[in-house]
Amino acid sequence: MSSETWGQMAKSAVDSETVEEAVTRLIAEHEASPSAHLGDNESIAVHRAETVIDHPAGSVLADKKTMTELSIDHDFSSITPWTKTGTVSNSNWPDCTLYVEWGAVNTSRMRLSPQSPSPFDDYDYEATFQTVFRTDMTGSTLHGWFGIGLVDDTPTSGFGFVIQAGVLKAYIGMGATQRFQTITGATIWTAHIYRAQMVPQEDVCKFYIDGDLVAELAIPATSPDDDGGPDIGVRLSGSNDGNFIVSDLHFSRSLILPST
User: Which of 24, 119, 134, 209 has the fewest CB atoms within 10 Å, measured from its CB?
Assistant: First the structure.
């Protein structure tokens, strides 16, 4: 009784490629494919979407530092580079406090105006603002902001978080296009990590608190195209006093236009 070696059999009567050759070829094509395992719920796509990439401690080497963006980590050990008004102090480092008191110091603000890349506040490029924030104030007389190029809690351009009459909101805008979204579930008097991230390839700005996506706002069609950088401030519209407290600031701006 003869035995057939399945792998050596031709695929069909009209194709002399053997089953073994076809399997070998298809495996090689799969390994060479740049899109392998990137589909929904496939292994690499799931890995990339993980909230925590749990590689061994010390495995991210120095040569992995970004080569496509300006990326700044700032711990407020020095606040000399900042333009400041009101009462701003890092005496309780690593915190930086912005103090206000109705009738004495109604507004405190600190801002940076990066000159490279220029214009810094350009909605065509990926950008990120992240900081740890809390305040010891509440109420309708409390107004504040922290983000890129915001200037005030009623800005005309920029993106980030604002507090209007004690209410926390996500914001992005330019000129006549002003977009706000009220954020619920996060108490501003408890420290949280706030992140605003421009994603121009998706035409949205995404807002996170402690890693949770809390808002998405469409990017306006026009861009500020100015040197607006990190901007943090607090103002009072009536009786109140206390501090805005920020620490562990990170901000970045891509140097390369994203692929669409």
Answer: 24
